[in-house]
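Journal club side-thread
Mid-discussion, someone asked how the predicted structure for our own chain would compare to the paper's figures. Pasting it here so we can look after the session.
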Amino acid sequence: MLLSLAIWVPILAGLLALATGGDRNAPLQRQIALAGAIAGFLVTLPLYTGFDLRNPGMQFVEHRAWIPQFNVFYTLGVDGISMLFILLNAFTTVLVVIAGWSVIQQRVAQYMGAFLLMSGLLNGVFCALDGLLFYVFFEATLIPMFVIIGVWGGANRVYAALKFFLYTLFGSLLMLVALLYLYNKSGGSFAIRDWWKLPLPLAAQLWLFFGLLFAFAVKVPMWPVHTWLPDAHVEAPTGGSVVLAAIMLKLGAYGFVRFTLPILPDASRELAWLMIALSLIAVVYIGLVALVQTDMKKLIAYSSISHMGFVTLGFFIFNSYGIEGALIQMISHGFISAAMFLCVGVMYDRMYTRNIADYGGVVNTMPKFAAFMMLFAMANCGLPATSGFVGEFMVIMGTIKVSFWLAFAAATTLVFGAAYTLWMYKRVIFGAIGNEEVAKLKDLNSREFLVLGLLAIAVLFMGIYPLPFTEVMHASVNDLLRHMALPKF
């Protein structure tokens, strides 16, 4: 019942907000959205407090008939791999609603409703145990994000929204073909855990691997199918960028660990070299691309691609350090990327520009904001005692057990990350006041301070004391490695 509540509470709240009419009821719509987001977060907390750390299997399982004549069931469940993403999504939704409280003045109900609907659909992706149910939720998340970018985005919002939609839709159609093949081979079952047991020949696994790869690689996004992301981020409103970076990018990586690794273990080993190569290109090359960006949002977008390269690298080195580190990196990146985009949003709401050259000396007029952004910038660099360090360190530790040189190449992201993040921070925040517009800036209001303060607590807590995050996933990761017949370190 808890998982159904996590899905349907925000969806119903979103529909209720939409039903309240036009902008004349904007205060009521905001209150409904906030109440729905908080309720959606509160119903996810028992998933953590009631979680059995020693049980590697699915917990809080729900099983109901949906389309029984085709063996399609409404089956939900979470394990140590998926549970934290539901909490991250629910937490992020609350922040997005608060962040857009006074910024969005037109179509308030539609804006808040879209985020609440997407929150419920994203939770559905993370807890679906039926292949067709997973596909429905996976595809449905495109619709509210398409609307968010296309309606509240920037000047080129239609182009960015269409590019985002077409890239992700094409990959998903190939995934549907792979899922239908698995359904047929399993004797007419869409149960994902049944697919884990299929004795598939290597040739079939390789074809299925590429079918799933296109869907998940576009979502991550991996190089070279990453070009939609900078456009989507630049044109999306701040809340859209936050959810896109913090949650939606995780769908592809989650697909690898939920489908590709357990269902196609032989193909995963056979093509690990390809995945490692693509991951390292993302880490190194995209890090260099980020160095030359002049738009803050585009720089953070490329930074996200580079950091997500660490995630796919960790999955395909096949040891517990790597996989757990990749999962931790996904959670950490959710906090940090959300914080960085919110920081850009705070400045954009005041000056309506994202160009680095238009700023300078912001610390003189916004000292509280500068302190928060310094913390998030350091976390983006992977500074120890911040969440950004934990996952990257674990992945490097896992990689060095496989190859020193692979670990060395991966570790370059610590150098490049520091270079592009601190270069941006120095030019925007430090120095003398750059122009009259910067001189007129006002520091954080209470709403902005609350949102950035909550993220700062999350970043520091995870960096200083990561055990509550790692202990949840340990049993499930080891069970995955046992299933793949691979050694643990």
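Post-session note: The chain has a mean pLDDT of 86.
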